[in-house]
Design a protein that fits this description.
Strand content: 25-35%
Largest sheet: 8 strands, mixed
CATH superfamily of the largest domain: Alpha/Beta hydrolase fold, catalytic domain
Helix content: 10-25%
Number of strands: 45
Number of domains: 4
CATH architecture of the largest domain: 3-Layer(aba) Sandwich
CATH topology of the largest domain: Rossmann fold
Distance between the termini: 46 Å
Strand order of the largest sheet: 38-39-41-40-42-43-44-45
Length: about 750
């Protein structure tokens, strides 16, 4: 209790809930006393009660508690007025059923009686309606046939709203327990999941007479490995439907041909976004992109209108439900669809800048910089390019406006919106907005203020050579709490007003750091072998002396220079190495950025990293005879490539490296069951072609074929259950080095 500083401790708490918009009450489930549970189990060996436990409802003002036994589920209304809970067993005080506890009167009543399996308890936004699933068959049947019930505060008991006999309910389907129920915000609609009745397991088959077999078919949209990986998820797949609360009218919205549905305007819009990637599943194996067809689905009757076919990129709806919005990565533009007119607009064509990643160096479509948000009534949509913020008319009638006045691109500084109200649905153009800045030249960060209605440049509020955390605003005060950090300075908490006048440090969470050597970091620059300007980070030991020579560790993974002010906590790592660990022990630690050319990932790494290392050597304080190199996964591959093309390094560590792209190309990613072809043709491995289109690219970029040139001792680390890189790749590299008598070690972590 904050006002008197008292603490109450409660044991065996399994879960708890507080009202989101109310206060004064706490509900929690408390597990059984272990000794008592063992006694009960010893008395009744058949009894197994893993889910039922006591529900305790506590009034925080005076600490009074009400306890209900054998509670399987509970749900606190957002307003805190009522608590819904289901009991599975009878005792002297209560019978099996669903109950409502009224916090204003501290009384409760049963709204659904009878022994049943109750699931998915739910309140509407105002706490005036409740819904739940119930199956009166309490046997341990594998399949349950639930009915949907709804209760309103003016009713004595819950009413049956939907079962499988309802008109329009799909034949041989059921109400799914695997999808959460959802009331629309206005409480008029209730969304639920349905699914086909699974085929029953054939229990007549004898296991030793049954072959266990996977059949791979060339026309299968998904490989058997992916089907097996996704099997459990697919068995639980549900398809969204809706039922009208007042009249019980049912509409099936999603289906096996349209599996994904996004509810719009919290269910009030009268339509939903339907998505289907089914026609493009085969392409996932080599394109990588999840192409989808986009539909407008009318919630009144489930009617569908195709909005856009085969799009790759983020899809959303405007908060007021007037528009669908998506970024088409293939075309590199943002599009809107006006629901009322059915008109599609290209919002960013002809604006002269890219709204997709300008630094993308993969042989794939570039991703969007993102959506900032919408203004009231969906009048304007706000989008990011690399640096600036654009205000666009979703109807494509008014001219586009750069609200940051082009300063971002001019000053190589990005502007990004920070919402201080987690419940805000729109961006208020008349209020000052908080924007965060990041200067790509020196990696400094800041906060500034901008009103959309003002045609002026953003007002700088705070700027520092630090990493600044996202501020959190007090709900009822103009105060902010945020973090500030550098490589040396722990991200302690600071407070300020919304103008950032006189920020105050409020915590000192890591005072013990003063007892340890830490180090410093410098942003460094050089040119690649082909003349590209590059950046990197050079971490130096504490009390660095430029007249001495230090050993140096080189570590990399694509681009990291923007992390100049990141604070690294000393901690064990599964694979990567820590700059502060090495700097504290007297090492230089160098992280170079890499720019890739499609088809030549290994050569690109060589072209960027070696000149960077030479640039550090030329400064006179690097001991050239003691330079080590380490990388993990994609970085591990590049380490393996570098030691087959350079003799610069004293030793090397390669974690989970791909050594042979020709064999890895057709391998399976265990984490998803997908074939690795897409990774080489489109994504990080950056070959940009099939194995048979450009076989020499696969061979030339594979360290395995240059193993005879290795002179650097190499430590290889792999995991035999690696979900991304087959650990056989590490074995191929190690056995080749072993065959040639090269100094090499392989660490394989099991499981």
């Amino acid at each position: 209790q904050l006002d008197i500083g008292s603490v109450t401790k409660v044991g065996r708490v399994q879960s708890y809930q507080l009202p989101e918009k109310g206060s004064g009450w706490l509900a929690y489930q408390r597990g059984k006393d272990p000794a008592l549970a063992k006694q009960e189990a010893d008395k009744d060996k058949k009894k197994k009660d893993d889910t039922d436990s006591d529900l305790v409802i506590r009034r925080l003002a005076d600490g009074r508690e009400w306890t209900f036994h054998a509670v399987t589920e509970y749900q606190v209304a957002k307003t805190g007025q009522r608590i819904l809970f289901a009991c599975s067993a009878a005792d002297s005080a209560q019978k099996p059923g669903v109950y409502v506890f009224n916090t204003s009167s501290a009384s409760w009543r049963m709204i659904q009686g009878g022994k049943a399996v109750y699931k998915k308890l739910l309140w509407d936004e105002q706490g005036q309606q409740a819904a739940f699933l119930a199956d009166s068959d309490t046997s341990k049947n594998q399949q349950r046939f639930y009915a949907l019930f709804c209760w309103r505060t003016e009713n004595d008991s819950a009413q049956l709203l939907l079962d499988t006999l309802k008109t329009g309910f799909p034949q041989h389907w059921l109400i799914s327990e695997n999808q959460t129920l959802q009331f629309s915000r206005n409480g008029e609609n209730l969304f639920l999941g349905t699914a086909p009745i699974p085929l029953p397991e054939d229990t007549t088959l004898v296991e030793f007479e049954t072959a266990k077999l996977d059949i791979w078919h060339y026309q299968d949209p998904l490989l058997q490995s992916q089907q097996v990986h996704d099997l459990e998820k697919e068995l639980k797949r549900s398809y969204t439907a809706v039922v009208r609360v007042k009249n019980g009218k049912f509409s099936q919205l999603a289906g096996v041909d349209l599996p994904e549905l996004k509810i719009v305007q919290e269910g009030d819009a009268g339509w939903a976004l339907g998505l289907s990637g089914l026609p493009y599943q085969l392409l996932l194996s080599w394109e990588g992109n999840a192409f989808q067809d986009l539909y407008c689905v009318r919630t009144a009757d489930g009617a569908r209108t195709l909005i856009a076919p085969k799009i790759a990129g983020p899809v959303s709806a405007s908060p007021h439900g007037k528009y669908a919005l998506w970024f088409d990565e293939v075309q590199g533009h943002w599009f809107s669809y006006e629901v009322a007119s059915g008109k599609t607009n290209n919002l960013t064509a002809g604006l002269g800048v890219s709204f997709a990643d300008e630094l993308n160096d993969r042989p794939d479509y570039a991703a969007a910089y993102g959506l900032m948000g919408w203004t009231a009534q969906d009048r304007r949509v706000l989008l990011y390019d690399r640096f600036d913020i654009w205000e666009l008319d979703p109807a494509n009638k008014a001219a586009a406006r750069i609200i940051t006045k082009g300063l971002g691109r001019q000053e190589q500084t990005s502007y990004r919106y920070l919402s201080l109200d987690p419940e805000a649905k729109f961006i208020d153009g008349d209020k000052p907005l908080l924007l965060k800045t990041f200067d790509y030249r020196d990696k400094s960060e800041g906060f500034c203020s901008k009103r959309l209605s003002d045609d002026v440049a953003p007002l700088v509020l705070f700027h520092a050579a630090q990493s600044l955390g996202k501020p959190i605003k007090a709900k009822q005060a103009e105060r902010l709490v945020f973090t500030r950090s550098t490589f040396r300075d722990f991200p302690d908490l600071w407070t300020a007003d919304t103008r950032f006048t006189q920020p105050l440090r409020r915590s000192d969470a890591n005072p013990q750091q003063a007892d340890y050597l830490w180090g410093s970091v410098e942003l460094v620059r050089w040119l690649s072998n082909d003349g590209k300007p590059l950046q990197g980070l050079l971490y130096k030991p504490e009390n660095f002396d430029s007249t001495r020579q230090y050993p140096m560790i080189v570590y990399f993974y694509e681009r990291n220079a923007d992390l100049l002010h990141r604070y690294f906590e000393p901690r064990p790592s599964a694979s990567s190495v820590s700059p502060v660990f090495y700097a504290s022990r007297g090492y230089l630690f160098f992280i170079p950025d890499i720019i890739y050319e499609a088809g030549y990932p290994g050569k690109s790494a060589l072209s960027c990293i070696l000149p960077g290392v030479q640039a550090m050597i030329s400064r006179g304080f690097v001991d050239q005879s003691r330079i080590g190199i380490q990388g993990q996964s994609w970085g591990g591959y590049q380490v393996a490539y570098l030691v087959t093309h350079s003799h610069l390094f004293r030793c090397a560590g390669a974690g989970a490296p791909v050594s042979n792209m020709t064999s890895a190309y057709g391998g399976i990613r265990l984490e998803s069951g997908r074939v690795r072809q897409f990774q080489y043709e489109r994504e990080q491995s950056r070959i940009g072609a099939t194995l048979w289109e450009k076989p020499w690219h696969y061979i030339e970029n594979s360290p395995l074929f240059k193993v005879p040139d290795v002179t650097t001792p190499l430590l290889i680390m792999h995991n035999d259950n690696d979900g991304a890189v087959p650990y056989q790749q590490g074995i191929e590299l190690f056995t080749a080095l072993r065959r040639l008598g090269k100094p090499a070690w392989l660490l394989v972590y099991n499981g």
